[in-house]
Amino acid sequence: MFRRLFGFFSSPTPAAMSAAKIKAQNIINENAVVVFSKSYCPYCTASKNLLNKEKAKYVAIELDNEKDGSAIQDALEELTNQRTVPSIFIKQKHIGGNSDLQAKKAELPALLMDAGAL
Description:
InterPro entries: Glutaredoxin (IPR002109), Glutaredoxin_euk/vir (IPR011899), Glutaredoxin_subgr (IPR014025), Thioredoxin-like_sf (IPR036249). GO terms for molecular function: glutathione disulfide oxidoreductase activity; glutathione peroxidase activity; glutathione transferase activity. The chain is of the alpha+beta class. It has helices at residues 2-6, 14-30, 42-53, 69-80, 98-103, 108-115, and strands at 33-37, 59-62, 87-90, 93-96. The protein has a four-stranded mixed sheet, with helices on both faces.
């Protein structure tokens, strides 16, 4: 709990950052659809609900439950220029956040099919 409340005051070490960047990239590369999320975030829940409604196969990484979640979030910011969650990838392409995913509702089934996530 302390880490969740005060984790933003400390930055990951360069080694941790490098390991987190490799980990994040591996997760993205190995999965058709990835949602980097936080368990308490309503926007993350909305994104996962939409993917569930579409019956998509996806991996959700709850950053607040990961030991290196803060470092992964920093790494995602470096990779995408987006700090906030959810951070969503489909077929290794960064889609954006919840509002970006919601805006793609009409084309989402085709995106998911193309990614092999249906």
